[in-house]
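PROTEIN DESIGN WORKSHEET
SECTION A - STRUCTURE
LENGTH: 579
TOKENS:
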């Protein structure tokens, strides 16, 4: 157990170091400055612009930026849908569909297309049984680059709106996604893929292998181009696994080292963007304040979840099962977890991938203790801003920062300011629309599903845990996370449709007022700081920001959590007290 704790600390220290360096690098990339990658990638970048017919010097208003983003997304959804529906008729079947998998059914293809386009990667299918190698690479891994680049681009657009003075434009969407892909996502993914392969992750186009076990049974071992998809799924905070077992599968996540590496990959860009923001603001302490708020909540949730999982399941204790740590076992609640990771590393992985929008899992969240499993759910419900997805975490956090300075302004009786720009009623209304869109979707769809007969048919478990399975599903899809309490049967017409709607709302209903906010803020002049200005680069502001996030989250979701994981925890421990 001590080694797991040390690993917990070392991993987060590595995240901070990488994020600090990456933050400066990303600032230079989006400023169009020369980097060490420019001699190789700048010619490729120019070719991309000529191919698309894009003038990289021509910027867009927030409306133009939004239209470009929606256009690219809709076209990519349609292309992915067609590829999945025709995957058994496309060329190179012998090489890229050696297992003769059929076409994906219509409602599942639509759900999957929207899922990957929105950076959710919710999977109502087993990848090794449903998707050809071509579909995994061209339809799904392609989206893992595009959706991640889109999130980064939206974050940079909002940052420009906050820091520019009396402007009209927020950047060029096509330029931003090109630079995100070429200079950030692609190089890191290549290096990560090679490291994963060196550790035992597979990367091939072989057909599935049939073997005979020692007991005489027959087993089929799935193969494929796994490592390359694993790298971008974590780096882009996507989460869609090549296999149904996701990162619990040894071909995706072979060792404790790769487990820590994948945590690092999913956290480095979201945390790095906080420092990028600081560089844009010409005050790195602004970025440090945002980073500190993100890290405090994430580490707190990770420690709490690790404690709950290591404490074990009292029902097992009553049954006489040894669950405490000994020299021969890590102890804790090991149901649904890999022995090579243990309870603490699994808790760290789960909170890291739900504090971001990754949704990758190395254990079954459905088998966590009630309060341990509540932490991933709550991190998603807070808006996945601690640190959130690639880009989506930063722009979500900045919306809360604007709300925090508004509250601070009310406290001191002055017009609130952020980065020298006055926050007015229109700005707060747009921020509120963004924040309220997520709970409206999560709680609305959950309420309908609990009452509807088709919704009630989904959970595998009755009572509080069944309610948690439904609540987690709509939290995950609205939050564009993609992980699940897997006891819910999601591959039905009802859930494929409603979960698709939740994913679309979570990505785009949130983004529309956010880009409008960027368009409003970019036009404003910077007001010199005065004695009444509330500083936003101090520990006091970080504390206020954390308080606003937790209070808004508690007021919004505590009643629902009380009916699910909290009630289940009380029921579980009521048996312990009775005993």
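SECTION B - SEQUENCE
RESIDUE ASSIGNMENT:
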């Amino acid at each position: 157990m001590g080694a797991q704790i040390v690993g917990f600390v070392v991993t987060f220290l590595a995240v901070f170091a990488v994020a600090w360096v990456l933050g400066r690098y990303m600032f230079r990339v989006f400023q169009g400055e020369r980097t060490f990658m420019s001699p190789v990638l700048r010619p490729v970048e120019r070719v991309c612009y000529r191919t698309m017919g894009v003038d990289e010097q021509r910027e867009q208003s927030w409306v133009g930026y939004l239209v470009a983003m929606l256009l690219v997304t809709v076209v990519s959804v349609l292309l992915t849908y067609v590829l999945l529906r025709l995957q058994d008729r496309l060329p190179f079947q012998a090489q890229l569909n050696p297992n003769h998998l059929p076409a994906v059914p219509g409602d599942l293809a639509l759900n999957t297309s929207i899922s990957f386009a929105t950076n959710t990667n919710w999977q109502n299918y087993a990848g090794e049984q449903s998707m050809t190698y071509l579909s995994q690479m061209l339809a799904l891994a392609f989206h893992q680059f595009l959706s991640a680049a889109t999130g980064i681009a939206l974050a940079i657009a909002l940052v420009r709106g906050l820091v520019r003075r009396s402007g009209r434009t927020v950047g060029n969407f096509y330029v931003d996604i090109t630079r995100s892909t070429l200079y950030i996502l692609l190089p890191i993914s290549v290096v990560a893929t090679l490291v994963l392969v060196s550790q035992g992750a597979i990367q091939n186009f072989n057909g599935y292998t049939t073997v005979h076990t020692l007991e005489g049974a027959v087993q089929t071992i799935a193969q494929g181009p796994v490592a390359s998809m694993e790298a971008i799924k974590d780096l882009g905070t996507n989460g869609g696994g090549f296999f149904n077992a996701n990162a619990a599968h040894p071909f995706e996540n072979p060792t404790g080292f790769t487990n820590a590496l994948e945590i690092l990959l999913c956290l480095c860009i979201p945390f790095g963007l906080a420092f990028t923001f600081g560089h844009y603001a010409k005050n790195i302490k602004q970025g440090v304040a945002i980073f500190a708020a993100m890290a405090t909540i994430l580490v707190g949730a990770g420690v709490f979840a690790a404690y709950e999982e290591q404490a074990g399941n009292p029902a097992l204790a009553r049954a006489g099962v040894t669950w405490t740590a000994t020299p021969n076992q890590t102890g804790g609640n090991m149901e649904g977890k890999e022995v090579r990771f243990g309870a603490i590393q699994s808790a760290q992985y789960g909170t890291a991938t739900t504090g971001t929008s990754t949704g990758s899992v190395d254990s079954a969240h459905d088998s966590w203790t009630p309060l341990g499993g509540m932490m991933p759910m709550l991190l998603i419900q807070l808006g996945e801003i601690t640190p959130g997805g690639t880009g989506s975490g930063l722009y979500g956090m900045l919306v809360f920062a604007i709300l925090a300075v508004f509250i601070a302004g009310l406290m001191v009786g002055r017009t609130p300011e952020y980065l020298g720009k006055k926050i007015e009623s229109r700005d707060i209304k747009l921020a509120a629309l963004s924040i309220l869109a997520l709970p409206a979707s999560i709680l609305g769809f959950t309420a309908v599903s609990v009452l509807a007969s088709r919704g009630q048919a989904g959970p595998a478990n009755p009572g509080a845990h069944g309610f948690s399975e439904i609540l987690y599903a709509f939290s995950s899809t609205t939050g564009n996370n993609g992980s699940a309490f897997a006891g819910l049967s999601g591959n039905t017409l009802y859930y494929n449709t409603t979960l698709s709607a939740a994913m679309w709302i979570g990505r785009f209903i949130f983004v529309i007022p956010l880009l409008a906010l960027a368009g409003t803020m970019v036009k404003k002049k910077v007001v010199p700081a005065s004695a009444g200005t509330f500083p936003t680069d101090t520990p006091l502001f970080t504390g206020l920001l954390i308080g606003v996030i937790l209070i808004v989250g508690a007021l919004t979701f505590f009643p629902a959590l009380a009916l699910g994981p909290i009630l289940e925890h009380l029921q579980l421990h009521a048996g312990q007290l009775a005993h």
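SECTION C - NOTES
The CA atoms of residues 5 and 344 lie 7 Å apart.
Strands lie at 209-212, 218-221, 417-418, 421-422.
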